Amino acid sequence: QVQLVESGGGLVQAGGSLRLSCAASGSGFSPYVMGWHRQAPGKQRELVALIITGGSINYVDSVKGRFTISRDNAKNTVYLQMNSLKPEDTAVYYCYARDSIAYWGQGTQVTVSS
To answer: Looking at residue 101, what is its pLDDT?
Structure first.
Protein backbone atom coordinates (compact mmCIF):
# COMPACT_ATOMS: atom_id res chain seq x y z
CA GLN A 1 0.00 0.00 0.00
CA VAL A 2 1.38 3.39 -0.99
CA GLN A 3 1.58 6.11 1.64
CA LEU A 4 2.70 9.72 1.35
CA VAL A 5 3.75 11.35 4.62
CA GLU A 6 4.20 15.11 4.67
CA SER A 7 6.00 17.29 7.17
CA GLY A 8 7.26 20.83 7.54
CA GLY A 9 4.16 23.01 7.53
CA GLY A 10 3.52 25.69 10.11
CA LEU A 11 3.06 29.37 10.83
CA VAL A 12 5.51 31.92 9.49
CA GLN A 13 5.58 35.67 8.99
CA ALA A 14 5.48 37.19 5.52
CA GLY A 15 8.94 37.10 3.98
CA GLY A 16 9.89 33.98 5.88
CA SER A 17 10.71 30.48 4.71
CA LEU A 18 9.47 26.94 5.20
CA ARG A 19 10.55 23.60 3.80
CA LEU A 20 8.03 20.86 3.14
CA SER A 21 8.99 17.21 2.84
CA CYS A 22 7.02 14.24 1.55
CA ALA A 23 8.21 10.67 1.83
CA ALA A 24 6.52 8.05 -0.33
CA SER A 25 6.52 4.43 0.76
CA GLY A 26 5.15 1.23 -0.71
CA SER A 27 6.59 -1.97 -2.08
CA GLY A 28 7.83 -1.40 -5.59
CA PHE A 29 6.50 2.14 -5.72
CA SER A 30 8.51 4.24 -8.16
CA PRO A 31 6.59 7.37 -9.09
CA TYR A 32 7.56 9.15 -12.30
CA VAL A 33 5.95 12.37 -11.07
CA MET A 34 6.08 13.89 -7.60
CA GLY A 35 4.98 17.29 -6.51
CA TRP A 36 2.79 19.61 -4.51
CA HIS A 37 -0.66 21.09 -4.82
CA ARG A 38 -2.37 23.50 -2.46
CA GLN A 39 -5.87 24.50 -1.51
CA ALA A 40 -6.75 27.77 0.15
CA PRO A 41 -10.09 28.28 1.93
CA GLY A 42 -12.89 28.76 -0.57
CA LYS A 43 -10.65 28.04 -3.54
CA GLN A 44 -9.99 25.08 -5.79
CA ARG A 45 -6.91 22.94 -5.35
CA GLU A 46 -4.11 24.14 -7.61
CA LEU A 47 -0.81 22.80 -8.79
CA VAL A 48 2.19 24.41 -7.11
CA ALA A 49 5.14 22.44 -8.48
CA LEU A 50 5.91 19.11 -10.11
CA ILE A 51 9.14 17.27 -10.77
CA ILE A 52 9.30 14.46 -13.28
CA THR A 53 11.82 11.64 -13.40
CA GLY A 54 14.61 12.93 -15.63
CA GLY A 55 14.48 16.40 -14.14
CA SER A 56 11.68 18.29 -15.83
CA ILE A 57 10.12 20.79 -13.42
CA ASN A 58 6.97 22.91 -13.57
CA TYR A 59 5.84 25.72 -11.27
CA VAL A 60 2.67 27.75 -11.09
CA ASP A 61 3.51 31.32 -12.10
CA SER A 62 2.73 32.77 -8.67
CA VAL A 63 5.60 30.87 -6.99
CA LYS A 64 8.30 31.09 -9.66
CA GLY A 65 11.49 32.55 -8.23
CA ARG A 66 10.37 31.92 -4.65
CA PHE A 67 9.75 28.15 -4.40
CA THR A 68 12.12 25.35 -5.32
CA ILE A 69 11.10 21.72 -5.74
CA SER A 70 13.63 18.93 -5.46
CA ARG A 71 13.58 15.18 -5.22
CA ASP A 72 15.68 12.40 -3.72
CA ASN A 73 14.88 9.40 -5.90
CA ALA A 74 16.72 6.98 -3.63
CA LYS A 75 14.43 7.96 -0.76
CA ASN A 76 11.27 8.53 -2.84
CA THR A 77 11.11 11.92 -1.15
CA VAL A 78 10.13 15.27 -2.60
CA TYR A 79 10.86 18.64 -1.04
CA LEU A 80 9.46 22.11 -1.48
CA GLN A 81 11.62 24.98 -0.31
CA MET A 82 9.41 28.04 0.07
CA ASN A 83 11.08 31.43 0.41
CA SER A 84 9.73 34.97 0.50
CA LEU A 85 6.38 33.64 1.64
CA LYS A 86 3.32 35.81 1.19
CA PRO A 87 -0.05 35.74 2.98
CA GLU A 88 -1.62 34.49 -0.26
CA ASP A 89 0.51 31.34 0.02
CA THR A 90 -1.60 30.34 3.01
CA ALA A 91 -3.20 26.99 2.21
CA VAL A 92 -3.18 23.29 2.91
CA TYR A 93 -0.35 21.81 0.88
CA TYR A 94 -0.79 18.29 -0.49
CA CYS A 95 1.93 15.99 -1.66
CA TYR A 96 1.27 14.18 -4.94
CA ALA A 97 2.91 11.16 -6.52
CA ARG A 98 2.00 9.16 -9.57
CA ASP A 99 3.00 5.92 -11.20
CA SER A 100 0.09 4.16 -12.93
CA ILE A 101 -2.32 5.99 -10.61
CA ALA A 102 -2.17 9.12 -8.50
CA TYR A 103 -1.68 9.23 -4.75
CA TRP A 104 -2.14 12.10 -2.32
CA GLY A 105 -0.83 12.93 1.11
CA GLN A 106 -3.05 14.00 3.97
CA GLY A 107 -2.06 17.65 3.67
CA THR A 108 -0.04 20.02 5.81
CA GLN A 109 -1.15 23.51 6.79
CA VAL A 110 0.98 26.49 5.81
CA THR A 111 -0.08 29.82 7.30
CA VAL A 112 1.68 33.07 6.40
CA SER A 113 0.86 36.05 8.60
CA SER A 114 1.11 39.63 7.37
So the answer is: 92
